[in-house]
Write a structure and sequence with these properties.
Helix content is about 40%, strand content about 25%. The protein has helices at about 35-50, 125, 130-145, 145-175, 180-220, 245-255, 260-265, 285-290, 290-310, 330-340; strands spanning about 1-10, 15-20, 25-30, 70-75, 80-85, 95, 100, 115, 225-230, 275-280, 285, 315-320, 345-350, 360-365, 370-375.
Length: about 375
């Protein structure tokens, strides 16, 4: 799989841009602030309908424009498919595949798959649990696009249930609420939550050995890592990919904390409260790992994701956004040797010297919003 052409209209800093691409390595080179990351962000958006830099779509639209359009021609198994995404902040986004409209933008998920390394990835190790939950869910959707609907359903039910808890809590303090509606939302949350939780448990089992292998390759030492899923259900519940068992456990756990939830007006149990515990040599990476160890573990999570997606069939596009400048020489060379065999690698760098020799290939200069291929 590779991206053969990227076209932008009013995306970020670009009024328009056309970027033809080949399989192999392409380095986007230029000083900071010239639009390199905007280009790879657009590639990631084509694959995930999301940005690795911002939480909403509004910043993706160029200042003064009403909408942005991102188009990408994807070559897979000698067949070409055109994805077109229209970003409309405050309105419904629209999508086309081969110039034909699709019912929902998420219908394009799975056509292009990417694994993106970026400086923001340090938050996977050092940041809040929400960063690691997002990592898991993004990878789930990349592997199985239908889970985007499950993820969306869970978020919708959680929002509705939290709203009900707030109003029910107020009613409780003023005379007693009718909690029958809350029982209904408990059942909805348990079903959607069990589906998401089971998928996460299966994913962690699959990626655990791949992360440990990748960390050893990047860090080049005898250090061991572990990846453990910690659910808010409590340690007494054995995690397993049985949806019915997990749904029953979730419903029981919700019943057990209902009084506290009514007092606080928030859902206290479910996948939105879970954690992915990362360890290096049996110590929690968050709080104990050095800067270099944290970077290596973040890279290992992405490399493990790449290996997992490859095993599923269809090599994803690898994107390395300003990563090499953050690494020492040894880690830089080891990472370069690991990713060089990929079908397509897109790299951003402030100067050409930041790109290791093992990743020599096509070069595109990016300056002042202009994109120019030089080799």
């Amino acid at each position: 799989m590779h991206l053969a052409h990227l076209s932008l209209t009013d995306f970020r800093s670009y009024a328009s841009a056309e970027l033809p691409l080949d399989a192999g390595v392409t380095a986007l080179v230029g000083p900071n602030g010239q639009g390199k990351t905007n280009l790879v962000e657009a590639v990631g958006y084509l694959a995930t309908l999301d940005s690795h830099r911002v939480a909403s779509d509004a910043p993706l639209v160029r200042a003064g424009a009403e909408r942005a359009v991102v188009r990408g021609s994807v070559v897979r198994d000698s067949r070409s498919m055109l994805i077109e995404l229209e970003i409309n902040p405050g309105k419904a986004n629209r999508a086309r595949v081969n110039k034909s409209p699709v019912p929902r933008p998420r219908e394009v998920l799975g056509i292009l798959r990417t694994v993106l390394f970026a400086p923001e990835d340090l938050a996977l190790v050092k940041g809040d649990p929400s960063e690691r939950r997002r990592f898991l869910d993004d990878l789930l959707v990349a592997r199985t696009p239908r889970l985007a609907a499950v993820r969306s359903d869970y978020d919708r039910v959680l929002k509705q249930r939290n709203a009900l808890l707030k109003t029910a809590g107020l009613a409780r303090r003023s005379g007693g609420p009718d909690l029958r509606t809350l029982d209904v939302w408990d059942a909805h949350l348990s079903r959607a939550g069990a589906e998401l939780l089971a998928a996460r448990v299966e994913l962690v089992e699959a990626i655990r050995p791949l992360v440990d292998k990748a960390y050893a390759a990047v860090a080049h030492g005898s250090t061991s890592t572990s990846v453990e899923y910690v659910a808010s259900l409590g340690a007494e519940v054995a995690l397993q990919p049985d949806r019915d068992v997990l749904a029953a456990a979730l419903q029981a756990a919700l019943a057990g904390v209902r009084s506290e939830e009514l007092e606080r007006g928030i859902t206290l149990v479910g996948p939105h409260r879970d954690e992915l515990l990362l360890k290096i040599n049996d110590l929690p990476a968050r709080g104990y790992a050095s800067h270099g160890e944290s970077w290596s573990l973040a890279l290992a999570l992405r490399l493990g994701s790449y290996d997992l997606l490859c095993a599923d069939g269809g090599e994803p596009v690898l994107i390395l956004d300003d990563v090499f400048a953050e690494l020492d020489v040894d880690r830089r060379d080891r990472l370069a040797s690991l990713v060089a065999p990929a079908e397509q690698v897109l790299i951003t760098a402030a100067v050409a010297a930041d790109v290791p020799e093992a990743l020599a290939g096509a070069r595109v200069d990016v300056m002042g919003g202009e994109v120019r291929r030089v080799r």
